[in-house]
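We close this part of the discussion by returning to an individual protein. Part of our work consisted of pairing the sequence of a single chain with a tokenised description of its backbone. No coordinates are needed to read the tokens, only the vocabulary itself. The amino acid sequence and the backbone structure tokens for this protein are reproduced below:
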Amino acid sequence: MTVDAGALADFARGCAVLGSGGGGPADVTLPVAGQAIEECGPVPVVAPAALPADALVMPVGLVGSPAVAAERIGGRDEPARLRARFEALHGAPVAAVMSSEIGGLNGCVAVAWAARLGLPLLDADSMGRAFPRMDQNVLELAGLRPGPAVLADEHGHTVVIDDVDGAHLERFARAAVAAFGGRAASTDYPLTAGQAARYAVAGSVTRALALGRGEGPAPLLTGKVSSVRRYATEGADSDDATGVLLEGGGPDAGRTMLIEARSEFVAALEDGTPLAVVPDVIALVDVRTGWAVPVEEVRYGLRVHLVALPSAPVWYSPDGLRLAGPSAFGLAGLGGAGGADGPGGSAGPVGLAWDSSSRTGGRTSRGGTP
């Protein structure tokens, strides 16, 4: 399989859905990937098992503010600079690129950089969706080391972060990103193809392509955004939050649904009953354009489909829920459809089927650092 110019728009639309309202708008990096493919050729997509088990894999993505990334799309040299520093640190050549985060703008970033580097792209990623923190990934759950992580900007500056756990990577990387001006290219959680086959979320590129072609589940509701409330959550670690009220139309007339969001959509409730809860992927898809709508762009009157998808099975394990379940977003006790929040809760997604034929399932966490 390859990602070429004809498949790229579908891929980007699927990445937007997997962003769950976050991860940055995929249409920002879609033209970047398009230009890279035009200049360097289509990108081959391979399963991790197709490479030697000890082959070095470089996860890639952008870190920082999506708003800044939209204005500073970067240059042609960033992936080569990351690769050179990454290979020097590991003493081995990079065999393939993997997206750190398939959801949002980083899916197309991985395609663009794979094209620029002349490397295959793994049909896998570190999250299976978008999450706000760098350490909210399945490689953290598997106990892999976050470093050495490399951050770079378009001006030739690089920073290496090593000998840290996932939580400290997040803190140090954000400090470095601030010094970079709000955006940086990154590679972290280095791994081999064998480790990617065992621990990464398999089938991510294939899934994004399928979603972008309209091969997803039926919407939970189709209707209009009737109210949007932006507010700050309480507590020392307060975060911006958004509440969206949907009114059903057509066959869904008379139904109302509340969507709760942070940087991503994290819960969908009808009459107080959760229908989908993080780590489920929750997306609002514009009826007119077919593109998933970022949280910050939701507005009154928008006609949308509410879509919910399961995340990778490991996110419903006790460790997965501690790292990226409801309590990680200030929704403790809201287990609902997506499974109870914490040990002993439901380990399955909200009545939604996961296609285990194309994804790695049934894995057991090896004690990450939530």
Q: What stands out?
A: Residues 336-370 have pLDDT under 50 and may be disordered.
